[in-house]
Write a structure and sequence with these properties.
This protein is of the alpha/beta class. The chain has nine helices and nine strands. The strands form two sheets. A six-stranded parallel β-sheet has the order 3-5-6-7-8-9, covered by helices on one side. Helix 2 (38-50) packs parallel to helix 8 (219-229).
Length: 259
């Protein structure tokens, strides 16, 4: 068990302790393209704790037809994972403080809005993602309809959408609509390529980014997170900028917070 941890070349340092909570990861085993087992989830969680995270919110994909997850099943699986982790008696891992979802804005998304079918980050925020290949048609209306249901919106990894530049007027429009941005930590280290890396730094420097997230999927991501904790540019960024991860459970709306 934990072979990855036994053979990793170096350990993480708590670079991301100021964040406190990771709001985006795929460590609920067997429900999407993330972790495949409890063992893999535990290995990733231990690295995340070493990197400074005290709390973790699991956010499995909801994307039809690829990941046709149902909220009731996800809640049950999350309860089972917590029981299994407690039985494993692993102490050096973050607290699993909640389960939400990363919801793809697709043809089925308006029906979710109509029926309030969301598991929420911190009990009130919807984490959404767009297609990595093409822009969403009618996006303004969909986001407006979601807001009219009194949901706060967090857009996952805007730096990864190839049709947006880091200073895109379309991204500025989303910010003007009151949508919060969450950048992937591993984008800053070049894990997804040079373009997402450049855009991630640009967005943060413009003050557009409220959240950071690991988007942790498996031990490959965990190794990359270890490396990111030693990246001097990322360390300086974490010292310079403040993010709102630790406020996801605060009672007041996120948009009233000041960075």
């Amino acid at each position: 068990m934990f072979e990855f941890l036994k053979h990793r070349p170096k350990s993480a340092i708590p670079t991301f302790a100021p964040l406190g909570t990771d709001i985006h990861c795929h460590l609920l085993p067997g429900v999407d393209d993330g972790s495949k087992s409890n063992e893999e989830s535990l290995a990733c969680l231990q690295v995340m704790r070493d990197a400074g995270f005290e709390n973790v919110i699991c956010t499995p994909h909801y994307q039809y037809p690829r990941f046709p997850n149902e909220e009731t099943d996800i809640l049950n699986r999350f309860d089972t994972l917590k029981i299994d982790i407690a039985a494993a008696k692993q102490k050096n891992i973050p607290n699993l403080t909640g389960v939400a979802g990363e919801y793809r804005v697709d043809t089925g998304f308006p029906a979710r809005i109509e029926n309030n079918r969301f598991l929420l980050v911190g009990g009130k925020y919807v984490l959404v993602e767009f297609s990595l290949h093409q822009q969403v048609i009618g996006l303004d209306q969909v986001m407006f309809d979601l807001q009219m249901k009194n949901y706060e919106i967090i857009l996952a990894h805007p730096e990864r959408y190839p049709y947006y530049s880091g200073t895109s007027s379309k991204l500025q429009h989303l910010k003007d609509m009151g949508i919060n941005f969450q950048v992937n930590i591993l984008s800053l280290s070049g894990f997804y390529g040079e373009s997402p890396k450049r855009k991630a730094f640009e967005m943060i420097e413009k003050g557009w980014v409220e959240f950071m997230g690991t988007d942790m999927h498996n031990t490959l991501y965990a190794q990359a997170l270890i490396d990111a904790t030693h990246d001097r540019k990322i360390i300086k960024l974490m010292e310079k900028h403040k993010f709102l991860n630790s406020h996801v459970n605060d009672p007041e709306p996120l948009k009233t917070k000041k960075l």
